[in-house]
Specification:
about 325 residues, alpha+beta, Arc Repressor Mutant, subunit A, SH3 type barrels, 3 domains, seven-stranded mixed beta sheet
């Protein structure tokens, strides 16, 4: 009920207790109790005789109702598990999947202490300033289509960041989102599958939201950034989570109905990994050449200096600047 109550207050205009009671189908006493609980959480509410209540400011918390207040989805993010501190949201999402949790279940954490990105690399997640989440999906797709979900997620996240903060970000194949050449977001997609079909996928997303320069480790200085560092303003993380879910849902619906062809031009429009010279480092080799584009299943096409085309499934990319 708190999420529905907050949704009614989002306009910033006064709304009476009687109107809230009527719209939510509960007593005015129940509304008053929930408003009191929101005040204790840190929501600043103003009340005025004959006018009602209005929302003045919101805490930067990541409880389920904080996010639900901004959701416009039917499925994604409608079953939220929120944690203050975890080792990683990914295994928690896998546990929910094993319990037959419904599609759209979302694990959100205020801090990750043992987060890992692609190839097992450490992902720094600072308490209270970063955003870590894992989304459970159950698409009816083949195993070789699963990497497309990482590309779809990148489109959803870049659109959400732009909507909430105004930043227009770049996508670096296969799973990074950059601003000004610095890493802002990492995406990690994992799956459980039979030989021919995917049982479920977990899309993990880590976003640098409100870090200051000194919040990053020395090894990340100069290569990582945050939304606050780039805009000068903090971002409300619950609102950003909801924006990602809102964007993700319509893109995912379009993908399920019409395939990756519907998503591909949106990804290509924001990519810095296309039609440029680069090198791709895989566990077994380094491929240098010109990026021709991506295949329908999301692999990167690189043409080397001898004219031979290489299809890269996963690699570390270095752009030739």
């Amino acid at each position: 009920m708190k999420g529905q109550l907050l949704a009614l207050l989002q306009s910033g205009a006064y709304i009476s207790g009687e109107e809230m009671s009527r719209k939510l189908g509960v007593s005015r006493t129940a509304v008053w109790k929930q408003l009191s609980a929101l005040r204790e959480q840190g929501y600043e509410l103003e009340s005025a005789p004959k006018k009602g209540y209005r929302l003045l400011s919101s805490p930067d918390t990541l409880l389920a109702h904080d996010i639900e207040a901004h959701l416009q989805t039917k499925t994604l993010g409608r079953n939220i598990h929120s944690y203050d501190s975890v080792a990683s949201t990914q295994p928690l999402a896998h546990e929910e999947a094993a319990r037959e949790a419904r599609e759209g279940t979302l694990i959100v954490a205020n801090e990750q202490q043992g987060a890992r990105g692609r190839l097992g690399r450490q992902w720094q997640s600072t308490k209270g300033t970063s955003l870590s989440m894992s989304l459970l999906l159950r698409p009816d797709i083949s195993v070789n289509q699963a990497p497309q979900l990482t590309l779809l997620a990148a489109v959803a996240v870049t659109r959400a960041i732009e909507a909430v903060s105004g930043l227009v970000c770049d996508i670096k194949w296969p799973n990074d989102i950059l601003y000004g050449g610095k890493k802002l977001v990492g995406i990690l997609t994992e799956m459980a599958a039979d030989p021919d079909r995917v049982n479920y996928c977990i899309v993990g997303i880590g976003i640098n939201c409100n870090q200051e320069s000194n919040d990053f480790a020395e090894t990340l200085a100069g290569i990582a950034t945050s939304i606050k560092l780039e805009t000068g303003n903090p971002v409300q993380r619950a609102k950003l989570v909801a924006a990602v879910m809102n964007e993700f849902e319509w893109l995912y619906d379009e993908y399920i109905k019409n395939g990756f062809a519907a998503i591909r031009p949106l990804w290509e429009a924001r990519s810095v990994s296309l039609h440029t010279k680069l090198s791709a480092r895989t566990p077994s080799r380094i491929v240098q050449g010109y990026s021709l584009g991506i295949t329908d299943d999301g692999r990167l096409r690189i043409q080397d200096e001898d004219g031979q085309e290489h299809l890269i499934y996963s690699a570390d990319i270095e752009l030739d600047n």
